[in-house]
Amino acid sequence: MSETFRAILVSRNEDKTQAVRVEEMSEADLMEGDVTVAVEATTVNYKDGLAITGKAPVIRRFPLIPGIDFAGTVLSSGHARWKEGDKVVLNGWGVGETHYGAFAGRARVSGDWLVPLPGTMTPLDAMAIGTAGYTAMLCVMALERHGISPDRGPVVVTGAAGGVGSVAVSILSRLGYHVVASTGRTSEEAYLKELGAAEIIDRDELSGPARPLGKERWAGGVDAVGSHTLANVLSMTSYGGAVAACGLAQGMDLPSSVAPFILRGVSLLGIDSVMAPLGLREEAWRRLSDDLDRNKLSALSTMIGFDGIIEAAKAIVEGRIRGRVVVDMS
Ligand code: NDP
User: Fold this and answer.
1) Which among 58, 89, 316, 326 could bridge 321 via Cys, Cβ 3.0 to 4.6 Å?
2) Which residue's CA is the closest to the ligand 1 atom numbered 17?
3) Which residues contact 234 (CB under 8 A, 6 or more apart)?
4) Which ligand 1 atom lies nearest to the CA of residue 50?
């Protein structure tokens, strides 16, 4: 019980700047919860990058251990669904924002926030997917619920070389969609084709002001970018199509018009992974274990250790990271 572990702790200075340091902690230092987990793997998401660099107000209580995703083994549980030794995954629920997060050897959380690690996956596999991949799956499930099947036409993925984008490209191509990958890194063309993209377009084609309606180019899309990019994606979506919007890498604004909605019956599907209900999460993780090519997972991931987290957080907000960063906590 007195065993200690390392944790990244972000605190706030008097001048409101942030300080980030590595601390030795014990379980007694953790926040409330009915399940304690040995964190075996985690990942660095864009949001974690924002949290650690302080570039956006992700952290809403100080001091805080950041890290919104982890996979590991239950050490102790007072929750009916979990017992010692269970393998679990956690994404979101305010962990790494208001509740101590994943960048520590141990986490104590509510058992209601955990989903079972699919039997076919290791903790590192699950973190190669992470919130980014699970959000990509939620986007694909939303398109499916809207009837956007592969025979309806191409689908576009924006921010394709990023975490959400690269998993979305991989899942959609595995499901038989013709995937148009939009990226600013055309040097990543071979990588995106390897993931299953049928066509690559330069993101500059989508990043300027959108016309109310453009040429119909795709039946749907997964958008991780927002702003002008989402406006262009919508204006180029064919009649009755749908776009799942989950990100804001270009901006939080949406300089669009109602034209795609009222003249082409296009739908905008909002995707939130943080508070998504348990049933949807369990379905997403089940689907990820079936619909994501495991061999492609390794091509998507860069492996680092605990000591690399802070540097990776800086790199991701500067757009220097391709695909997913997986942290081996062992
Ligand atoms: P990454 O940083 O890995 O990927 C973002 C990608 O967006 C980049 O790789 C780049 O793709 C593209 N991009 C970056 N800046 C710009 C720009 N100025 N204009 C156009 N494209 C740009 O982040 P993630 O994939 O982890 O997350 C993507 C987005 O989704 C983020 O905004 C994140 O906050 C959000 N998100 C939302 C969730 C939710 O629950 N709704 C959950 C998870 C993430 P390329 O290099 O190919 O051009």
Assistant:
1) 316
2) 250
3) 210, 243, 256, 260, 266, 268
4) 34
**Ligand 1 centroid, distance to 250 Cα (angstroms):** 8
Q: What is the ipTM of this complex?
A: 0.99
User: Global pTM?
Assistant: 0.92
Q: Helix or strand or coil: residue 232?
A: helix
Residue nearest to atom 4 of ligand 1 (CA): 162
Model pLDDT for residues 42-100, shown as the tens digit of each residue: 999 989 999 999 999 999 999 999 999 999 999 999 999 999 999 999 999 999 999 99
What is the DSSP secondary-structure string of 252-320? S-----SHHHHHH--EEEE--SSS--HHHHHHHHHHHHHHS-HHHHHHHEEEEEGGGHHHHHHHHHTT-
Question: Which residues contact ligand 1 via a Cβ below 6 A?
Answer: 45-47, 131-132, 135, 159-165, 183-185, 203, 207, 224-225, 229, 246-250, 271-274, 316, 319, 321
Site to substitute for ligand 1 among 46, 52, 91, 157, most atoms within 8 A of C-beta: 46
Instruction: Please say whether the beta carbons of 102 and 39 come within 8 A.
Output: yes
CATH fit for domain 4-117+299-328, picks 3.20.110.10, 3.40.1350.10, 2.60.120.620, 3.90.180.10: 3.90.180.10
How far, in Å, from the CA of 19 to the mean position of ligand 1? 25
For residue 224, the CA-to-ligand 1 centroid distance in Å is 5
Can you give the residue ranges of every domain in the chain? 4-117+299-328, 130-270
Q: What is the pLDDT of residues 238-273, one digit of tens each?
A: 999 999 999 999 999 999 999 999 999 999 999 999
- Say whether domain 130-270 belongs to CATH 1.10.357.10: no
